[in-house]
Amino acid sequence: MSSMAPKGRQRAAPKVASGGQPAPHGSTMHRRNPVGSGIHSHESFSQADREAIYRVIFERRDVRRNFLPTPIPDEVLARLLNAAHHAGSVGFMQPWDFVIVRARETKRAVKQLFDKTNEAAALRYDKPRAGLYRSLKLEGIEESSVNLCVTCSRQRGGPQVLGRSTVRDTDLYSTCCAIQNLWLAARAEGIGVGWVSILDHAALKKVLAIPRPVKVLAYLCLGYVSEFAARPDLEAAGWRARLPVQELVHYEVWGNKAEGNGRKLTCESPRSIPEPAMRAKRG
Amino acid sequence: MSSMAPKGRQRAAPKVASGGQPAPHGSTMHRRNPVGSGIHSHESFSQADREAIYRVIFERRDVRRNFLPTPIPDEVLARLLNAAHHAGSVGFMQPWDFVIVRARETKRAVKQLFDKTNEAAALRYDKPRAGLYRSLKLEGIEESSVNLCVTCSRQRGGPQVLGRSTVRDTDLYSTCCAIQNLWLAARAEGIGVGWVSILDHAALKKVLAIPRPVKVLAYLCLGYVSEFAARPDLEAAGWRARLPVQELVHYEVWGNKAEGNGRKLTCESPRSIPEPAMRAKRG
Q1: What is the DSSP string of A206-246?
Q2: B9 interfaces chain A, CB cutoff of 8 Å
Q3: What is the pLDDT tens value at each position of chain A, 283 positions in all?
Q4: Does B251 reach chain A within 8 Å, measured CB to CB?
Q5: Is B155 on the interface with A (CB under 8 A)?
Q6: B265·A22 Cβ contact <8 A
Q7: Which of A272, B12, B229, B249 is deepest in the core (most CB within 10 A)?
Q8: B195 Cα to chain A: minimum distance (Å)
Q9: How many pairs of residues across A and B have Cβ atoms under 8 Å apart?
Q10: Residue A32 to residue B274, Cβ atoms within 8 A
């Protein structure tokens, strides 16, 4: 394995053998890590690694269509849950649980909850927005091979959770971070994930027998897909445009749109912006 | 580029040229994507890509120490913010903003807020837990080169945000997903990120002049680090142990610890669990 010196940190490329396994090495800095696990905490990421990581971030989609009937192998689902489980959590609380739903009848019951809530939601819009709303596909509950309810057990860490005394909802925030881990890992596996937020969580808890003190964070639909959309569905449908990220950056205090010396970030490098169509459209 | 057929989806390895740039290709399926950006939405991820993605998920840490004085170049910071900005958001609301803090005096003011809140938090524990608590390093506000306050503008999407009518806090959840994107991208860049949750957000908003309707989600400390810890700090310090992920999985309904036919997931594959010491300890 190449140097761990700070200078080499950014550019050092880990040697990857032809099978995709990191090459063995003998550095004493890695002693705390398992032998043969392929996971070493002190390694830097190569340029190719970083590109893969940015690519999965940019190409993750909220997926509601193109699901294939191909089942998700248990070992792949296990990898996704393990990825979720390796999010950080306030006070190392690990407040999440995962309810795996595969049964048709359960999916149908949840789909009925969605339909009821979605009909009410559609009534909130006037024409022509209402027509556009109804044309959007907002869930893939029955088409996806696995549904996954992610919850947050708010009492898991006992009454005193380190770091949670001032901002009580940090356990929810940790659980969202876990969901994002799963979402990215799924994209890397070719599995689409759709987050169904149009659901009455109290009713959903009854369907899944989730106890009262446990909070539902997300109901996700997972499945292999024939393709991932190049852009988010709502952007492609003209529902809303992507905001230029520069407009969301403040310097030192809110509202300062540049540093004192006029310096400001340029966020739209070719590598980091995958949608030039939007860039052109917004000038 | 190799086949997009479902069979080849999982194993197809994109051709990567020696410089780490995906090789050019001419598939019509990619036409919507930018030429020369290196980002193509329909590509599958190679085994090496997936390993990098899992590795960054497993090796991300909540970092409070080992910060180097090396400044973060603007283009790197821009990449991190862009990664955050490419999280999904309810109704494509993109509710986040980023306040970049570099000034010593601002950091000092925030550090004082931390000290005050942390002293109160320490008093909640009895011995010997109180002693252990005080020995923990829980922030790197002044040592890290950039502090970043991530907020959620709850009114950004107008009164009717698609998908948010039933679960109003989905905008907060989206913002957390954005933070996780940034956290992972930072790890890939060799940048440690620490989430300081022991802060009075009302007082913090005054320091950063954040308007009343905008919610503070996170105060992050970012900087290059000399090394990343092999395990989370709180685990290494014996504050709490990692839970076996299997214990957090339910089948069909809450509390079912296996499928009807007795089938259950095995989550501890060597590749996916980086901490064999913990596995051994918990049997």
Answers
A1: HHHT--TTEEEEEEEEEEEBS---SS-HHHHTTS-PPPPGG
A2: yes
A3: 333 333 333 333 333 333 333 333 333 333 233 323 333 345 799 999 999 999 999 999 999 999 999 999 999 999 999 999 999 999 999 999 999 999 999 999 999 999 999 999 999 999 888 999 999 999 999 999 999 999 999 999 888 889 998 999 999 999 999 999 999 999 999 999 999 999 999 999 999 999 999 999 999 999 999 999 999 999 999 999 999 999 999 999 999 999 988 999 988 654 443 432 222 222 2
A4: yes
A5: no
A6: no
A7: A272
A8: 9
A9: 445
A10: no
Residue type, A42: H
Q: Among B51, B180, B37, which residue's Cα sits nearest to residue A49? A: B51
Q: Which of B29, B160, B275 sits opposite A124 (nearest CB)?
A: B160
A16 by DSSP, 3-state: which? strand
ipTM of this complex:
0.83
Q: B91: which 2 tokens? A: 């109704």
pTM to 2 decimal places: 0.83
Does the beta carbon of B71 lie under 8 angstroms from any beta carbon of chain A?
A: no
* Angle subtended by helix axes B74-85 and B170-188, to nearest 10: 140
**Helix, strand, or coil (residue A188):** helix
Q: Which two tokens stand for residue A82?
A: 């393990």
Query: Is B263's Cβ below 8 Å from some Cβ in A?
Result: yes
B177 with A181: Cβ contact below 8 A: no
Question: Do B70 and A157 lie within an 8 Å CB cutoff?
Answer: no
Interchain pair B38, A271: CB under 8 A? yes
Residue B179: half-sphere exposure toward Cβ, Cα within 13 Å: 38
DSSP letter, residue B62: B
Whether B60 sits inside 8 A of A86 (CB atoms) is: yes
**What is the side-by-side strand order in the sheet with A96-101?**
A191-195, A214-224, A146-153, A96-101, B249-251
Least CB–CB distance from A42: residue in B201, B227, B265: B227
Cα dist from B61 to A3, A92, A153, A188, B103, whole Å: 21, 11, 22, 21, 25
Burial class (CB in 10 A: 0-12, 13-18, 19+), A262: exposed
Residue keyed to tokens 């190392």: A92
Taken in order B160, B162, B168, B171, is the CA torsion positive or negative? negative
Partners of residue B265 in chain A, C-beta under 8 Å: 74, 77-78, 81, 100
A249 Cβ neighbours under 8 A, 6+ residues apart: A257, A264, A265, A267, B81, B97, B98, B100
